[in-house]
Amino acid sequence: MQYKNLPCIARMKEISELIYETCKTYLITQGKFIMILWGVIAVIVVATSHSASGARASGSADCAMILFFSLVGIAGRYGVAWFGIRVKHLRQFRAPRSPVWEESLTRCMQFH
Length: 112
Fold this sequence. Notes:
The chain has 112 residues and is an all-alpha fold. It contains three helices and no strands. Helix 1 (10-53) packs antiparallel against helix 2 (57-91).
């Protein structure tokens, strides 16, 4: 189903756009923070791994694999969150509603 093509109330679309922009800004800020935090943790993991393994080649490979898959996990969660806010934005206020619901909503929005 194409959510963009569903009818929506103009006032509710404005609210939906505002919510989407707020969520997008928050997600971008959160992503920056998580990458800074990951960098600090990566430095600690590399330092701990290097001192524990005695600079063995397998220790470095294990460390690199752990850091790589931690990035894959972070990217996956970030992608799911981004997809979630995008779909919610497109779906919110666009789903087919009953005429009674739309009439009551329109009356409610006239008072604001």
